[in-house]
Each structure stands twice: as structure tokens, then as C-alpha cells.
Specification:
9 strands; 173 residues; Thrombin, subunit H; 3 helices; single chain; 3-stranded antiparallel sheet; mainly beta; 6-stranded antiparallel barrel
Length: 173
């Protein structure tokens, strides 16, 4: 497999081969209901080149107690960038969406307009003036309480779900 940074059609900013992967130890391929174990839907890839040093990277960030309070109060704003099925090989994104719920299993429901093809895409937030990775998009479900007015619920795995793996990889202090 080849990872392409900054891909746009057949152009990109850099490429690296995937030479290893760490998959969540409790990952199950069958879908669980929101909050029912989806925090295990993640994997970390090892590349044969350090594209982060060459091109830059977004440091991961794990929610603290104040962040979880801000989420409950509807004050935690995020943005997402990915390669949706409807935009093909062109990057698309959704700015200034909201996290609606953070579940104890390390997953969360957000309002970013994600769809097929966006799985694994970064969900980022401005933390102290710096863009930080807070989650990776996972899947979508029927509307979840208490938001029945939504057409669907978009689920992501936030970094609480894979913080230990990030620490072992040296990507999180």
C-alpha cells in the first residue's frame, strides 16, 4: 500500500510505502451501536519515509475534563478534511462543525458532513492557536438521541480511543 500526502488527482506532495500497522486489539469488523465499542475502530500505519518531517504534521490531542465539559455544553468546534466518494480524488472538508456527544468508549458524534470515502479522515480542532488531531472519522448511523432532527449521525474515534498506541509510537507525550 502507498500513502499519498496532499493527493489531488494524480498529483501529491509526497508518497511513502506502508511497511507496518497496529490495529486496535479489540477491533471487530461488525458495527456496534454508537457508544457501544466503536472506540476500537482505528489503526496506526508505519511508513518507510518520514513525510511528517518533510511536509509537516498535525500533533494529536486527547480531550481533557474541560474539553468534555465544552462538548456537553455544545462549545467544542472541529473541522474535517477527507476524500469523499462524491469529490473523487479531490480533498474536501467541512469547517466549524460541532461535537455533539463524546462516548466513554473513545468515540464521538459530530456534525461534519462526512460520507463514504471519509473513513479515517482527520477531525481537527484549534487548540491554543494550533491545529491538532482529535479524531478520525469512522462511519455514520441513523439519527441518535437526543438529535432526531438530524438526517444521520456521524461517528468518529477520538484520540482517547488510541492514546496508548500513540504514546507507544512516540507520537503523544
Amino acid at each position: 500500500y502507498v500513502f499519498r500526502a496532499g493527493a489531488n488527482d494524480d498529483q501529491d506532495l509526497g508518497r511513502a510505502n506502508v511497511v507496518g500497522a497496529v490495529v486496535a486489539p479489540d477491533y471487530r469488523s461488525e458495527s456496534a451501536p454508537p457508544g457501544g465499542g466503536n472506540g476500537n475502530d482505528w489503526a496506526l500505519l508505519t511508513l518507510d519515509r518520514d513525510l511528517g518531517t518533510e511536509l509537516g504534521y498535525i500533533r494529536p490531542y486527547v480531550f481533557d475534563k474541560a474539553d468534555l465539559t465544552a462538548i456537553r455544553e455544545g462549545r467544542f468546534v472541529v473541522s474535517q478534511a477527507g476524500y469523499s466518494w462524491d469529490t473523487g480524488s479531490h480533498l474536501s472538508g467541512h469547517m466549524n462543525c460541532q461535537i455533539l456527544t463524546a462516548y466513554r468508549d473513545g468515540s464521538m458524534i459530530h456534525t461534519c458532513d462526512t460520507t463514504r470515502g471519509d473513513s479515517g479522515s482527520p477531525i481537527m480542532a484549534q487548540i491554543n492557536g494550533e491545529w491538532r488531531l482529535i479524531a478520525v472519522d469512522s462511519q455514520f448511523f441513523d439519527p441518535q438521541p437526543p438529535y432526531p432532527q438530524m438526517t444521520s449521525s456521524h461517528l468518529a474515534v477520538d484520540t482517547r480511543g488510541f492514546a496508548d498506541a500513540l504514546r507507544r509510537a512516540g507520537a503523544l507525550q
